[in-house]
Design brief:
alpha+beta; eight-stranded mixed sheet; three-stranded antiparallel sheet; about 40% helix
Length: about 425
């Protein structure tokens, strides 16, 4: 969320920067609402001051035995005028808030121009994509052939875009989550959290999921209580500190959690709807950092490294790209995507997004710290996937497949699994 005054002061520069991400800022409408708000405040203050004077005159005139009829009439008029201004101010405030909540974050200058993944700039490639002497299968065929993934029974339970993992497949999911959490807590300094999976509208608004992405959220409730299923642990982790002032000595905060994530994936279609790439429910280990804004750039690079460490432990080939301004998420100012190699598609596919939100989320959620003078000031927030379990499993199955249909697993998973190979029939093997 933005400070209206800051956008107005930026003027054409704010319009230009938002245009880079395909958003047209209606600056005159913003200026008009801000002006009405300020005028209402001034008028209400003047009327209340006059009302106070008239009330004093009524008392004084009454004590002196004078006629207070006209004074009382003016007092009533002032009361009505104040009520009308307060009502208009409430409407203006709501309109201004709705407008500000709809404006995306200003993209960072270093984000390249463009509005699609084709405009992303590659930063680096790590690892060599495997070369097979046979036609590699996709993860759906591998999972079903070995019996470790069951999409048909998942559809029977819940409809399309769900999966059931069984046997070695379920063990793999559990092992991946444990490995990622251990990396982040033991090596990278994050504090693990167990958080609610259902949150309020205010919580969703704090991190920018609402009101923009309501159609992509699952909503539930009991009686008049409304709750949303989280699309990512970013939502509860960041909002843990909503409406709080964090002591500067406690920054940076590094938080992680493994949670299920629930998304309608509205508008997605084609190959991504098959298998584990885009599901309505999936598990993910999330990283969140809350930092001094001056440190956000360095913290972003650090977080990208933390996500990369997960892929390096598994020996999976991947690349890092910087997203174009028009392809950056609503709340982010700068985003790196990490894309893992998917052999069956012969391309890299996004497995983690790591984003710097600047003070955008902090303003919405009212998360602050104190500057060197003790004055409350906004923090910066960052988050990244570290990593999603389903997409990691898909890449793992495809990059580790053997010609006979078996799977040779990375050494890093053996301590969590107790085995290092899955036979073609799904049997775990040492």
């Amino acid at each position: 969320m933005h400070d209206a005054r800051a956008l107005i002061d930026m003027g054409a520069e704010a319009v230009r920067r938002l245009a880079r991400r395909g958003y047209t800022l209606d600056l005159p409408a913003l200026e008009e609402l801000q002006s009405r708000r300020n005028q209402n405040i001034r008028s209400a203050d003047e009327l209340r001051a006059e009302s106070k004077r008239v009330a004093s005159e009524v008392q004084q005139t009454a004590r002196q035995g004078g006629d207070i009829t006209k004074l009382k009439e003016r007092a009533r008029e002032l009361k009505d005028e104040i009520r009308d201004i307060d009502a208009d101010q409430e409407r203006v405030q709501e309109q201004l808030r709705d407008l500000l909540l709809s404006i995306p974050n200003l993209p960072a200058d270093e984000a390249p121009d463009g509005d699609s993944d084709a405009d992303a700039v590659e930063v680096r490639r790590v690892g060599t994509p495997p070369v097979f002497s046979f036609e590699p299968k996709d993860h759906v065929d591998l999972g079903e052939a070995t019996g470790i993934l069951d999409f048909a029974r998942a559809t029977k339970l819940s409809g399309p875009r769900f999966a059931v993992a069984r046997g070695a497949g379920a063990a793999l999911e559990r092992a991946l989550a444990a490995l990622f959490l251990d990396l982040h807590t033991r090596r990278h300094g994050y504090v693990e959290h167990a958080v609610p999976y259902l949150v309020t509208r205010k919580t969703m608004t704090g991190t920018g999921q609402l009101p923009k992405f309501e159609e992509d959220l699952f909503r539930t409730g009991v009686a008049d209580r409304e709750l949303f299923l989280i699309p990512t642990a970013e939502v509860p982790l960041t909002n843990l500190y909503a409406d709080e002032i964090i002591p500067p000595a406690e920054l940076p905060l590094a938080l992680t959690a493994q949670t299920p994530c629930f998304r309608s994936e509205a508008g997605s279609y084609g190959r991504d709807t098959r298998g584990l790439i885009r599901q309505h429910q999936f598990s993910k280990v999330e990283m969140v950092r809350i930092v001094d804004p001056a440190e956000a750039g360095a913290e972003l690079e650090r977080m990208v490294g933390h996500a990369e460490a997960c892929l390096k432990e598994l020996g999976l080939a991947y690349r890092v790209v910087m997203l174009a301004a028009g392809d950056t998420g609503f709340s982010a100012r700068l985003t790196y995507d990490i894309e893992v190699w998917i052999p069956s598609q012969n391309t890299y596919r996004e497995i983690s997004s790591v984003s710097d939100f600047g003070t955008f989320q902090a303003r919405r959620a009212h998360i602050r710290t104190r500057d060197e003078n003790g004055k409350p000031t906004l923090v910066a927030t960052l988050n990244g996937s570290g990593l999603p379990i389903g997409r990691t499993l898909a890449a793992l199955l495809e990059q580790c497949q053997q010609e006979d249909g078996s799977l040779v697993l990375p050494e890093a998973l053996r301590p969590y699994l107790g085995f290092g190979r899955i036979a073609a029939d799904g049997t775990p093997q040492a």
